[in-house]
Amino acid sequence: MKRAYEYDYELISGAIPRILTEEEQTWEEAFEVDKDSWQYIKLLWGSNVPGSFAPERVLLAGIQSMYNMGYNVVEAEELIEEALKAREDEDQVELTRITARVFNLLNHAKKIEDHPYHQYNCYESFEQYEKSVRFPEYDTYDANRKEFYEKTYAGWVTQIIGAAVGTAIEGYTTANIKKVFGEVNGYVRKPSTYNDDITYELAFLEAFNKKGYEVSSIDIAEEWVARIPMGWSAEDIALKNIMLGIYPPESGYRSNPFREWIGAQMRGTVCGMAAPANPRLAARLAFKDGVVSHHNNGVIGEIFNAVMSSIAYVETDMRTIVKQAIEMIPKDSEYYTIIKFTLDTCEQSNTYGEAWSICEERYKEYNWIHAYPNASIEVIALYFSNNSFDKCINMICMMGQDVDCNAAQVATLFGIAYGLDDISEKWKSPLNDELLSYVRGYEKTTITRIAEFTVKAVRRAQEI
């Protein structure tokens, strides 16, 4: 094997000096890099969601998230006003300095010892998780059955439907959605299948196809950096960590104030598809996938959706599915308190609106991209859906928050459980089997291709 110094010595030994012309010199490229860096820093302090134009200040929300996890962020909060002014003034020097300082303060924030967050258990491994819950047992599900393809294909179609309808209205409150759109019972604009949520599910499938049920978090992480050019919030931090050789689980929590946001929760159903009728296995896969970019409750959010999609292959009542999933969440986790409170509220409420009004107020300290308010929305929509796809999508849209993530994950359950026959053409026809993404190798593909790839990967894994 040739040593590193030998490669380097060959390179410099073969280099012949030459004088560059003005045109050949590349100093200008540095200015382009600086321009891109400045745009990124500005976006951290003020941007608009691409699909809905909802306003967001992601690093400000990161400060908020660290407090939600029980850390003292007062020093970082004191810099918010200065940061917003520097952004408004286009002061690149000052805003860049403040941004670095905020990340440093968050990385070294001290625990608030009596904060409620620290009353709950922190789940660092799946072995620890597995000992804390009881998974229901089902007969082995044979992925070679024709039904498996039909259910999985339907799950993907409904997931894309949910994402497409939700992308246009994410990031807004119930009151403002109702004010502008009234009751949302269909696409509010021509649907686009360009969706960043599916990005990470495709990377998971690539790793899973190669390694089957022995796939590791590192396998998934390397597919991320190989295929995904950019991310946002938790995924952005994770991608940067991985490229620096910081692998899971550290990639999910290091310098990542967004580690309990919705980014893992939004990709859980693919793990359930990979483990039909086997919620224990679905949870294990979701844990491996989740720690690439998230930690503790952020990972548990992915498990929540994974076990629901897994049991949707054999259970058909949505209220039963969500109740069973809640029982597969550790009772000493903070995540459990969120979804159990929501379920209890549903059982004491006459309508979904009544339940959401209570939960919306209770979880208002969490950013709209945080896992908690969105998990609450999922529980409410499934509980009150009466097994109606249209009714469920309407409720998810009207509750707002991270609508595309919620609608996509919950809609998948309907596709798996019931197939496509009861899904109205108003949802299906506009899609034209098209799927657009920025994942390398999947820039322009079809839903059919993704479904076939999923089924092929699962069948191969079951044979190993």
List keywords for this structure.
mainly alpha, two-stranded antiparallel ribbon, 4 strands, 59% helix, 2% strand
Task: Provide a descriptive summary of the structure in words.
This protein has 464 residues and is mainly alpha-helical. The chain is 59% helix and 2% strand. The chain contains 24 helices and four strands. It has helices spanning 4-13, 27-45, 58-68, 74-77, 80-88, 92-107, 126-130, 146-167, 174-181, 198-211, 217-227, 234-243, 250-253, 269-274, 279-290, 297-311, 318-327, 334-347, 352-362, 371-384, 389-399, 403-418, 425-428, 447-463; strands at residues 47-48, 55-56, 434-436, 444-446. The strands form two sheets. It has a two-stranded antiparallel sheet. The chain has a two-stranded antiparallel sheet with strand order 3-4. It is globular, with a radius of gyration of 23 Å. The mean pLDDT is 95.
